[in-house]
Specification:
single chain; mainly alpha; globular; Prolamin-like domain-containing protein; signal; Prolamin-like
Length: 115
């Protein structure tokens, strides 16, 4: 039961982080919903938070999350990170975030091939 509670809490945190970057009356709202519905269901909330922390902060990648990320797929990973990086508060460093996104993807693919 505690495990389910921690998953629900982590999912709530992911949704809250995403909402913080999404304007309330966004034209892209339908696009965002599609991304979340098709992509975020393929990765655990813990790993989604970890990838976001690595790309947008100074987080350390949890290697066990690489499997989830590769399973999510490159298109989903690219689109989700790009969507977040396009937020007005982050767009000034978008190039840096997109490079980190690509570095995380390459690292995870190399780990997945050796596993």
């Amino acid at each position: 039961m505690a495990n389910l509670s921690s998953h629900v809490t982590a999912l709530f945190i992911v949704v809250a982080l995403v909402c913080a970057f999404v304007p309330a009356f966004s034209v892209e709202e339908a696009e965002a919903k599609t991304l979340w519905d098709t992509c975020l269901v393929k990765i655990t909330p813990k790993c989604a938070l970890n990838v976001i922390a690595v790309v947008f902060g100074n987080g350390t990648l949890i290697e066990s999350c690489c499997h989830d990320l590769v399973q999510e797929g490159k298109v989903c990973h690219d689109n989700l990170i790009k969507y977040i990086a396009d937020r007005p508060s982050l767009v000034g460093r978008e190039t840096q975030y997109l490079k980190k996104r690509d570095d995380v993807w390459s690292h995870c693919v190399s780990i997945s091939k050796t596993a």
